[in-house]
Amino acid sequence: MRNGAVAVLLVVVVALGSAAGYLVGVDSQGGRTVSTTTALLQPCAGQAVWNLNSSSSPVLLMQPNSTAIACVTYQTWWKGNPSEITNSSPSQPTGPYQFYPFLVSNEACTANGCGPIVSNAFMVGVFPSTVQLTEYTNYVEVLYIITALGNSTGYYSNSVPFEACSSMPMAVGHPASDLNGSDFDPLITPICPLLQLTPVSVSVSGMGVVYLKPW
Which of 103-142 are b and which e, b meaning 16 or more Cβ less than 10 Å from the residue's Cβ? Predict the structure, then answer.
């Protein structure tokens, strides 16, 4: 976020559903696990917080010692149309595609350059971890299971994927009314190649979201 304080427009809080069986995912740092109920594993059944037509910028809200789910709908660059794929296409579609847990991080610059500083205060799982892409694949829905540990209070520049090569900022243990643009490190715009899959919408359960004016 840039240019100091930003105006808070709307806050939406979403509750987790009931339990019925468990899915276990391995977090991004390895060695720890996080579980969620299979009752929550419905395709993007939570509160919609972003899509390609959104004009405001979402910041996710969590509390320490809580678990939430983010469902990201991805679309292939060929949009399920085999005629868009040629031998000269920069990204061939067929075959298994691997999804990885996202990293919760902040941006920082040192004498050696700029990049993310990953937090170890979160466990993130992903389901499914692999999908089979074909020339007819259009949309793919992926669930990310996020657990904020007891020491996770803070402001983070990067969390759930959205847009191309971007991720949503997140505040943990802070009310929406306290948010200011200066709480988040400036985002470093990555060089974004043509991706096989690009996020087109995001919904969440078990966390809140505050909408900010674009920064």
Answer: bbbbbeeeeeeeebeebebbbbbbbeeebebeeebeebbb
